[in-house]
Amino acid sequence: MNKFVLGLGSLMLVSSVSVAQVNLSADSQSITTKARAIEQEYSQNLREERLSTTFASNLKMREQRKVGMGMAVGGTLGVAGALLEFNFEDADGAVAGFGTGPGYNSIALAWKHTFEGDYLSPYTTAGYSRWYNSSGHFDGSSSILDRVLTDSEKKSGQFGTDFLTGSIGLQYNQLSGELSGLGVYAELVALVEVKRSQFIPAGAVGALYYF
Is the pTM higher than 0.90? Predict the structure, then answer.
């Protein structure tokens, strides 16, 4: 009799454990399904929000999106560089950049004033740029540096030259849709080498995304 009771108890215990495992498995599947549904709904809401976002002008976009990140080719940074733009006001902001070229690196700081427009808006900048190299190697392939460096600086490959900079440009702004906040620009640049007061014209193109 005792053996029968013990056997029955063991059977009931095993059955309870099996039921608990089934319930846990069902709960786990239910949680996973709900989590996926929430994730999909959140992604859909974000996409709908991006699609429905429309700015009335470039200044409205800059008023809401204070930071821009992007890259530039040419201009104050040399061959290419990375840019950060901070919009303190809807029309005015600061731009900082770090660039590079054959045998040198560069940094640039500027103040940017943007004029109101829709998809196309003009702007101007005024700032400072420094091109430098301490590695002792300069291959002379930069036409700008070839004009401003002394023979001894070219020979040693170690130099640091400063420019006052100004530019006028035109920027395309994506004001609606999934790519709202994207800007693509082209500009004419004036570089004035500080030590020799030498004027050098240049140009640049680039892209920024504001968020």
Answer: no
